[in-house]
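Translate sequence into structure tokens.
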Amino acid sequence: MNAIRHGRIEDIYAIAVGSLLIGLGLTILHAAGLVTGGMAGLALLVGHFAPLPPGLLFALLNVPFLFLALRAMGSLFTLRTIAASGGIALASVLSEQALTIEVKDPFAAAVGAGTLLGMGTLAVVRHGAGVGGVGIVTVWLQQRRGWNIGRSQMLIDFAILGASSFFLPLDKLAWSATSAIGMGVVTALWLRPGRYAGFSPLRAARLGRRAEATAP
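Result follows.
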């Protein structure tokens, strides 16, 4: 199967849509009083103590990881990740102001929000960006070590949920774990190396370097 290069407009639109999905997922979890894995989970956890929208906290917590992105993944990846983080923050703030969400079923909130977060991550990563701190680390591990993004994400997620157990009641912790699993399953299934033929300039440059390194 021939690889198809994404156009610049496709990349911009995918990162915008992915940021919107992640922002909405964060808003639903925040309304339900739940957390999840990754930087989203950390932002929601910190949101229990800081009166700021989770998307804004998400962007602020990501700042230290951008230096890792710049050093390990390059300027293009870093710029796209900054754009995605800003989009997530904006989508979260706007949805908090524009929507009033009443959660009657925590299971629906956990599964729905986890799926939104997973699909948003899928869109952002496939178009040459990272979804913040933990996302940067998992993308780096896939690019450099071939580790599955979804599986790496799940391991980190359960560590974050373990820390959340000191602050959340048992029922909310269980629903939070359900959300993290839902997000991890989406990324584990559809972010496998070689599964998707489309690519962005970031991947094209990486493939070019790999070809030069293996050339006789």
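Note: The mean pLDDT is 81.
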